[in-house]
């Protein structure tokens, strides 16, 4: 039994159930935090200034909700916070969250930082080879699972069949990660082939669906709390959602965000990016061969993005958001919904500032943005989505 409990706020719905095994150790027993976004927003706003972004409000709400539940001993509890480390308020999460926990009476709770930019080094979570190997497997398995489930679920003949299969595979892959099995390239790809065969075998019906590509920053794209269950909303309104995982962002980060490190580390980052890029390319080939739609591999997507996005814009998700929008349109998802956190300056410049230019360069496409903020009503979000779905293109 681990000595302490490590609470991890929701961020990546498809990946954290697997990544938890990378963070677990003899010292830390990992608990993934969940909750209802309405309740968490309400709680977070009681402690967070309204100038701060939705992700931080929700993270605050999740942490306080868990600590106030009485399930965890504050003396033996820590919170893991992922920090990007660039021009984002997310780079200050530890310093913002510490005074809030102190004020709420949880000064004993440790805050741990997960980042590669040397932020809060005194609070950094130790990273070892075992963690990296597990995280790499979880990265690609999470990408594959999220893509296949999103494309199979709206067409399934028996409701719930896809989700049952996804849960079964999460259990299988979680056991692999716990035991340290199938972590090599061959093992990762073998599991991807097995998953693709299983999802392809799910009985489907030939029903008319509108294809919608879902893009945006990580929290509002890949977390149901951050986008208020947007995938479920779109599927309930007759849509098939194109949703890519985070391996593209991981490769983008290695490609653009390691300039603050010494030359040997930058060279090591490039070597790591090349290694991950090869695995990503082979994983995507497996999914394509099984009949699933996927974005091009990172390097190819980057080349295709030239002329569509300013490649010098690399703050936050930067040019990658515009590249993903163009990529989904080329894959046949002509309607694109870009989910963003209201007030995120890099996101608004690199995404919202590209909508009109992208639509001119991609005839027959429609790109609509929706901002998420505690002050934004559900009706406002729904009206933006209806604009995307109801407009003829």
Q: What's the short story on this structure?
A:
The chain has helices at residues 16-23, 37-45, 54-68, 93-103, 129-152, 161-179, 185-200, 218-222, 230-236, 247-256, 263-289, 298-305, 319-330, 345-350, 355-361, 378-390, and strands at 4-8, 28-32, 77-82, 110-114, 210-216, 239-242, 335-341, 366-372.
**Strand arrangement across the biggest beta sheet:** 2-1-3-4
What gyration radius follows from the Cα positions, in whole Å? 20 Å
So, CATH architecture of the domain at 209-244 and 295-393? 3-Layer(aba) Sandwich
Shape: globular
Give the uncertain stretches in residue-range form: none
Q: Sketch the topology as an H/E string, one letter per element.
A: EHEHHEHEHHHEHHEHHHHEHHEH
Largest sheet: 4 strands, parallel
For this entry, what is the oligomeric state of its chains? Answer: single chain
Query: Which structural class do you get from the secondary structure elements?
Result: alpha/beta
Q: Counting H and I runs of at least 4 residues, what is the number of helices? A: 16
What would you note in describing this structure?
This protein is an alpha/beta fold and 393 residues long. Among the domains are: 4-123, Rossmann fold (3-Layer(aba) Sandwich), CATH 3.40.50; 209-244 and 295-393, Ribose 5-phosphate Isomerase B, Chain: A. 50% of the residues lie in helices and 12% in strands. The protein is built from 16 helices and 8 strands. It has a 4-stranded parallel β-sheet, sandwiched between helices. Helix 1 (16-23) packs parallel to helix 6. The longest helix is centred in the C-terminal third of the chain and has 27 residues, at 263-289. It is globular.
